[in-house]
Amino acid sequence: MSEKSIYEESKENITENDTNENIEEKEEDLFDEVFGEDEEKKAAKEKMKKHIEEQKKQKETKKEEQEESEKENEKEKQEENSEELENEKEEEENEDEKNEDGDNEGKNDDENNEEDNDDESDDGDELEEDEDSDVEVEIFEEIKEEEESIKERDVREEDVREKYFEEESEEENEYEEEELNKNEKNKNETEKKNKRKSTSGKLDLKVTMEEEEEEETNTGIENPIERNIIKSVIKNKARKAVKNNETEETIDSNEIKKINEELEELQKQQKQNEENDSASIKPKLDFLTSEKGHAYIGRKKSVLAKYGEEAGLFIGRVKEKDKEGTDVYLDGLNPHVVFVCGARGSGKSYVLGVIAEEMAIKNKNVGIIVVDPIGVFWSMKHPNKEEKELELLAKWDLMPKGLDNVKVFIPVGMKNSVPKSTYDAVFSIQPALLTAEDWCLTFGIDRFSPTGLLMEKGISKVKTGYVTIEGKPIRGKQNTFSLEDLIQCFDTDSELNDKDRGYKSDSIRALASRFDAAKHWGIFDEKGTPLSQLSKAGQMTILDTSFLEDNVSALVIGIFARRILAARKLSTRREAAGKFADTTMEDLIELNVPPTWLFIDEAHTLIPGGNQKTPASNALVEYVKQGRRPGCSLVFATQQPSAIDTKVLSQLDIIMAHKLVFDDDIKSIHKRTPAIIPHQYKKPNFIKTMPVGIALTGDRQETTTRAFIMSIRPRMSQHEGRDAETTEQVQELAEDQVEILAVNITARQLEKDPKISIETLAQTLETLNTTYKKKVSIEKIIKMLEKKGITSDENYLYAKGVKEEEEAEKLREQALEEGGGEGVEENPELINTTKTKKPTEEEIDFEQKVELTAIQSTIGEKEARTLLAKHRLKKTLGLFGEEEILDRLSQKYGLIYKIKYHYFNQKDAYRTGEAYINSISGEFIHDSNGKIVESTGLNIINQLSESEATLFGQLMKKKTLKELANQMNMEEGNTKRIIDELIKKKIVTESTFNNEKYYTLKQSVDLPKTPLHEILPSIGKRPIIEVEGISVVPPKLNETELPSLLEKLWGNTKIKEVTHLFLPLWEGILKKKTGEERTIIIDAINGKKML
Predict the structure, then answer these.
(1) Within 10 A of 942 (CB to CB), how many other CB atoms are there?
(2) Lowest mean pLDDT: which of 270-274, 317-321, 803-807, 1010-1014?
(3) What is the average per-residue pLDDT within 686-697?
(4) I want to staple 1035 with a disulfide (CB 3.0 to 4.6 A). Which of 139, 844, 919, 1045 is the partner?
(5) Closest C-alpha to 234, from 41, 4, 32, 42
(6) In 157-223, which ranges are continuous DSSP H helix?
(7) Strand pairing class (367-372; 540-544)
């Protein structure tokens, strides 16, 4: 048999065990199974069934009348018997003689009565048989009429049959008539037999009706002419077999095979007809198409007419006969709620990546935030490297491409345990942003339980202020409090801890312990990450939440979704009103976010259905309900569509359903698809057998007529969400490299824990040997560690000096026990044994080997001599004046301060900045197209007071005294005194124009106006090398001056970290004949003079 298609129901063939008689009796059923039940035959059966029911009712009424007449006859018989008994009494005298006569007469009477009853019953049976025969005659007359009409129709279709089948012949037609007559005779004989055998007069006829679902009525061949042709051919084949055998033996297996082969050919032809007939799936597929012939889903006609294909997201191609191969584009201009679902490994996360990378490339005006609960989307930075997908990309006319606007954020608490190369920044949230309900859902506490009410009161008190048990007032911290502040409030607040009106100490301790545990989640910070850092136009933000528990991840996403929606609501209203001048700096940093697309994978953990709730549930429900006008879009994926909150599903306008296995999930898809689903696609087996990368896609827009099958395009960027393969992965590393690796790991561990067990080292070494297929011995590693100053005994390894300290401590304890405390003062040398011990040469060498990082130099010694020679003094005309020679040349390094700081441009929000300052010149140092450049004016600001620095910043252009006073909000007298000071320091000059005095800076100044200028961290992008034993030029700008310097320049800055980077220099000593020397220093990158 040919394979069944997805649109075709399975059909059964005639088995070899069917006899000739079974073929005659079941041939109609066979046709019904293969072709579906004939409509005319179905109507005839229904008519026959109704007629039989009416005749049965009439028969039952007649039977009741007969029973009543029989009862009357019995009464008459009883009366006759009573008269006979009276006659017998009168003849008592002749009893002996008449008894025998009476007995004989009684027997004769009984026989007569029985004969009479038999006659009456025979009359009744004849009546019933007559009535039944009338019913049967009428029924079979109708059957005969139907057969004659079918016969006439077969004659009319004879010409058509001859075109398709050559096996029709006059012989078969004659045989068909004979068989019809034979069937009628057989039916009459069976009727007579039934009349003889029947005692109840019931007609034993069975009419079976098979009910089929509406979806399945369309299977089979649609053309009735073709249907009747096929039926008649199969009938004639079966009759021919019976005629040839002329027995009731089973049909020859060869004939059955021929019939099956013909059925297979007909089914193949039917399948081909269905494939060629594009109108078999209704309604006809149609899209909103662009001028280039691209199909658009989710886009309105007016938007397509106005913007064309701008921000069209190419996601796949149509995978069905209607519109085969048409490119499908998703609208990326308007907000949408897109639902992607499918079983594990069906391609749902892949689709999220396709849409996200299209958004990142096609629409630079929106912010993209991808919630990554399994840590796979960070790889979108890199181009696709899979061989199979590279071939597919070529077929789709695409090129592998990594995204350069991806920024990966991890929780702030994980930055020390994650390789720096796998993330770009950290994110955190302020505890003040969480409501009492958020905390209750996260901790699993009833909102209105005593613990829930205690939490609400504690949060309120920390914001507004409270009084401790000792009576000390604590000022409220509004939106800047930490978890430690909350714990302190629970422990010390007088009202909460009151014995009469407060809460139980057990409840307070339990709640405080929960908040103490929350400190280790790694997501909280007093300041938090500004929203504008996460949702930024043209940037794809990957929030890697794979390090977090589900409830903590839900808490984070709920907070961000709520903040994005609130920010976009206010921004949209301000845009509509045109009120931008009233925007404060605080609002600008938090509320100035672009329209945002939020991508969520494994959404069932964040927005579960039923009675379950997470901290993200309410926030995401509001996000999709109210997000259309503010421009908030949501794309979410799950393995369990039936487990998603229906409030979110009711808002979706585009769905992409991949392969699903469970019926509950399939039904939920059918319910929530916002488009007409053809009945062929509603069959459970259809969606259960869809290949990977194929999606049943539905669109709410009226321009898309129905749901359709789409093939997802291959990813241009790398996808890390593939199944893990448990094959052996050999990692190449030489044995000496494994030894060094083991030593370094152990040394780092000893920095954290000064004492570790030998067993731990053995386990670590075993893991390394297994990974790299080596056999490094533990004895060799211990010897290598001892060379680094690490000591050991039978059980433990000790960091440098730890073992000596432990031994000294033991000696001290022994001295205390033996001398009762007196020996300590008498023998102080015993205690200070380790302190007075001189370090060995190896220890001194180990301490001096400090790892330092420096910018890689580009100027060698030879070129440096040439450059320095240009700065020496030469005789005029070779005769007059003094002359210098380059006496000595050495390489030095200048200290550069690498500063990380927070810039607060509103009350509770900040942005992180990075800058580099040269300690020699006191100026910002940058990299500009490969050249080292510096600012001008920063070293001047360092010499000024705060008021002088503020005025200095206003004098970039010529201004009058009045203008300066207004800008500084100062009296003109005070402003004039500051100006005079700057004039004395030769920083400001005074000029007169039209009898008006103007003030300006004496020398030009070039300083960054904002602490977030993109050039500030540029020097850190140059190649870095490690150096040892360097000679550093003494700095002119001290590290302690940096906080006040940045405060004077920008204000509202707080330095978080200062590290050191070294600039390579060449120092030349120029010497005169008199022995006088002077020093010239140039940088080893551009050759520019530094000193």
Answers:
(1) 20
(2) 270-274
(3) 92
(4) 919
(5) 32
(6) 158-164, 170-197
(7) parallel
CB 946 within 8 A of CB 1018: no
pLDDT, tens digit (0-9, with 9 covering 90-100), for 570-618: 887 776 665 544 554 445 555 678 999 999 998 998 999 888 889 899 9
- The structure tokens listed for 385 are 């490297």
Q: Which two tokens stand for residue 584?
A: 């404060």
User: Looking up tokens 């070293």, which residue turns up?
Assistant: 939
More confident residue, 752 or 912: 912
* CA 175 – CA 180 distance, rounded (Å): 9
Report whether 406 contacts 381 (CB < 8 A). Answer: yes
Contact 438, 555 (CB under 8 A): yes
User: What are the φ/ψ torsions at residue 350 (nearest 5 degrees)?
Assistant: -65, -40
pLDDT of residue 958: 86
For the stretch 475-506, pLDDT in tens is: 888 777 888 888 889 888 988 888 888 888 88
Interhelix angle 758-772/778-787, nearest 10 degrees = 110
pLDDT over 90 for what percent of the chain? 18
**Same topology for domains 734-799 and 936-1007, yes or no?**
yes
Task: List own/partner pairs for 723-728 with CB under 8 A and 24 or more apart.
Answer: 723/345
User: What are the DSSP calls for 55-71, one per residue?
Assistant: HHHHHHHHHHHHHHHHH
In this predicted structure, the answer to whether residue 423 has a pLDDT above a threshold of 50 is: yes
Rama region for 210: left / alpha / beta (φ>0; ψ in -120 to 50; rest) = beta
Confidence of residue 86 (pLDDT cuts 50, 70, 90): low
pLDDT at 372 over 80: yes
- The 10s digit of each residue's pLDDT in 204-244 is 333 333 333 444 344 444 444 455 555 566 666 666 655 55
Does domain 936-1007 sit in CATH 1.10.10.10? Answer: yes
Question: What separation in angstroms does the CA of 273 have from each of 219, 266, 279, 706?
Answer: 12, 10, 11, 22
- Cis peptide preceding 839, ω within 30 of 0: no
pLDDT reading at 908 higher than 60: no
On whether the CB atoms of residues 723 and 350 are closer than 8 A, the answer is no
Strands (E) in 288-424, as ranges, are: 288-289, 295-297, 312-318, 327-331, 337-341, 367-372, 406-411
- The third-level CATH classification (topology) of the domain covering 288-429+529-712 is Rossmann fold (3.40.50)
Run of H or E residues at 991: strand 988-993
Which residue, among 373, 370, 375, has the nearest Cα to 406 in the 3D structure?
370
What is the Cα–Cα distance from 719 to 772, expressed in whole angstroms? 27
Predicted confidence (pLDDT) at residue 15 exceeds the cutoff of 70: no
Q: What DSSP state is assigned to residue 924?
A: B
Q: How many residues does the structure list for the chain?
A: 1091
- Is 430 within 8 Å of 480 (Cβ atoms)? yes
Measured distance CA(82)–CA(167) in Å, rounded: 80
Return the structure tokens found at 767.
Answer: 């893991």
> pLDDT value at position 507?
86
Q: Give the model's confidence band at 973: pLDDT under 50 very low, under 70 low, under 90 confident, else very high.
A: confident
In the chain the first and final C-alpha atoms are separated, in Å, by 93
Answer with the residue of higher pLDDT: 832 or 181: 181
Alpha-carbon distance 1088 to 800, whole Å?
A: 45
Residue extents of the structural domains in the chain: 20-85+105-276, 288-429+529-712, 431-521, 734-799, 801-835, 849-924+1010-1091, 936-1007
Q: Rounded to two decimals, what is the model's pTM?
A: 0.49
Question: Domain 734-799 falls in which CATH fold?
Answer: Arc Repressor Mutant, subunit A (1.10.10)
- Residue 513's alpha-carbon distances to 94, 117, 449, 542, in angstroms, are 123, 102, 17, 32
Sign of the CA dihedral running 745, 747, 752, 755: positive
Which residues contact residue 781 at a Cβ distance below 8 angstroms, ignoring those fewer than 6 apart? 739, 742, 743, 746, 761, 765
Q: Are strands 540-544 and 406-411 parallel, antiparallel or unpaired?
A: parallel
Model confidence at 296: pLDDT above 70: yes
Strand partners, 927: 932
